[in-house]
Amino acid sequence: MEKRTLAYWQDKAATLSIEGRAFIDGASRDAYSGRTFDCVSPIDGRVLASVADCGAADVDAAVAAARRSFEQGVWAGRNPRERKAVLLRWAALMREHLDELALLETLDAGKPIGDTTTVDVPGAAYCVEWFAEAIDKVGGEVVPADHHLVGLVTREPIGVVAAVVPWNFPILMASWKFGPALAAGNSVVLKPSEKSPLTAIRVAQLAHEAGIPAGVFNVLPGGGEPGKLLALHRDVDCLAFTGSTNVGKQIMQYAGQSNLKRVWLELGGKSPNIVLPDCPDLDRAAKAAAGAIFYNMGEMCTAGSRLLVHRDIKDVFLAKLLEAAKAYKPGNPLDPDVSMGAIVDKLQLERVLGYIEAGRKDSTLLLGGERVNASSGGFYVEPTVFDTRHDARIAREEIFGPVLSVITFDTIDEAVRVANDSDYGLAAAVWTANLTHAHEISRRLRAGTVWVNCYDEGGDMNFPFGGFKESGNGRDKSLHALEKYTELKSTLVRLR
Ligand code: NAD
Question: How far is C-alpha 461 from the geometric centre of its chain's CA atoms?
């Protein structure tokens, strides 16, 4: 096999044909208005493609196609085994097109090609496979009832599911919605982020090729407008959202203003990573702490953006952390040796740099703090570490960039109080060799996922993923995710 070098991927990128049209009712289409927007690569600022800028007419067409396909039962009415077979074909096509999809994702979102080829695209295929494999195995219940009754409790597809997703893991986050939603028999309208629409558009074409019927899976690229219109649409039964807490709050309101569609939210985070003095392996913990905030340029909802370190080990631990941070050197994400790519766009770059400026005013900069490689035309920021207090702005607000706030504590109670003193509750971690402390602290942490002596473990589908508090409701991944895309029905059959 040809060695995958920077030049290899640059050559591939130069000849890549990029689809920018929406996918509605089984066909690639321009926006009805004819409007497009430029899809810009954060690697070098180059325009990759003109992408359909969908508006009201496109939303209506996609929702109507989804409704029609749902009512006709061309998907929902199929034996789950048949849906499974089609979904497995689709996943296989994603794997066949792995290089193409990974390249699109890297060009579009600035993510390292070493990650998109091993995490994002295989992860999306795996998600589809997992729910495909599950769907012909989960059944309903026959419940205890009066002797003259047969009582059934079943789950039915909810109908038309709209999925509105962010740009940090474009295809992976989308798959966490469309995998379970389609497996359960729904028809789906996916609205990718305007910052990273390309893989969603391409996988829709592959879905069609795999045999997903027209109207069952639609993709509407565009900005907030089509997202809002979907959330307000009276013929959308469920809106599954991953994105910022602010937009999530608006989406709940849109649902209330329209048809009370089911709303599922996976939102922001400011996750604490607590290191106790009896941490069993400080070197591993330091590497994990660096990965927790610098992996994917810190554009992680679960980013361990607050490092809570006990005063007794602070100096030793910080020395190890700063050493571990050297593994993250921003560079061209098409280079397979680069582990830190570009920030997704100029707006996000400015947001991150704005927080770094705020940090310089009230905190001590320990590492980084600068934009780099600006001559490339791309958007790169160094891994940045501040020693700060838990009430500093950089330690409270989600930055969604490679900026770590280190907070010192003296007691376990203080660590737990600081960890929980956040509007968010997505994830948390604790490092300790004491089993009792590990369990007690895990119970006290108000977060949807708690890692003990690790961070960001759990790449398989079995763990439900989602947040407490303003990090959202509902869960992606695991069989619990199917609950979001189904309605429960009680059927009571009187025998006499
Ligand atoms: P965002 O909220 O700005 O956008 C998310 C999506 O919503 C995009 O597709 C966008 O076009 C759309 N949108 C924007 N305005 C809208 C409106 N008024 N109505 C409907 N849709 C609208 O978020 P982002 O910047 O794309 O992503 C970053 C955020 O996502 C961070 O807060 C991050 O923590 C969160 N996130 C959460 C998870 C999770 O699973 N909890 C995973 C990844 C990212």
Answer: 13
pLDDT attached to residue 3: 80
Most ligand 1 atoms within 8 A of CB, residue of 193, 199, 296, 471 to mutate: 193
Rounded to 10 degrees, the C-alpha dihedral 476/480/483/489 comes to: 180
- 204 Cα–ligand 1 center, Å: 21
Our answer on whether the CB atom of 265 is closer than 6 Å to any ligand 1 atom is no
User: Above 90 in pLDDT, residue 29?
Assistant: yes
Could you read off the pLDDT of 109-147 as tens digits, one per residue?
Answer: 999 999 999 999 999 999 999 999 999 999 999 999 999
Digit-coded pLDDT (tens) for 151-206: 999 999 999 999 999 999 999 999 999 999 999 999 999 999 999 999 999 999 99
Just list the catalytic residues.
266
The angle that helices 98-109 and 6-14 make with each other, rounded to 10 degrees, is: 90
Mean pLDDT of the chain: 97
**CB of 400 sitting under 6 A from ligand 1:** yes
Report how far ligand 1's centroid is from the alpha carbon of 213 (Å). 28
Chain position carrying tokens 């890297």: 106
CA torsion through residues 156, 158, 159, 162, sign: negative
Which of 150, 147, 206, 148 is CA-nearest to residue 182? 206
**Which domains occur in the chain, in start order?**
6-267 (3.40.605.10), 272-458 (3.40.309.10)
Q: How far is the CA of 260 from the centre of ligand 1 (A)?
A: 20
Q: What is the value of pTM for the model shown?
A: 0.98
Tens-place pLDDT, residues 406-449: 999 999 999 999 999 999 999 999 999 999 999 999 999 999 99
Closest alpha carbon to 140 in 151, 128, 148, 132: 151
Question: Which atom of ligand 1 approaches the CA of 248 most closely?
Answer: 2
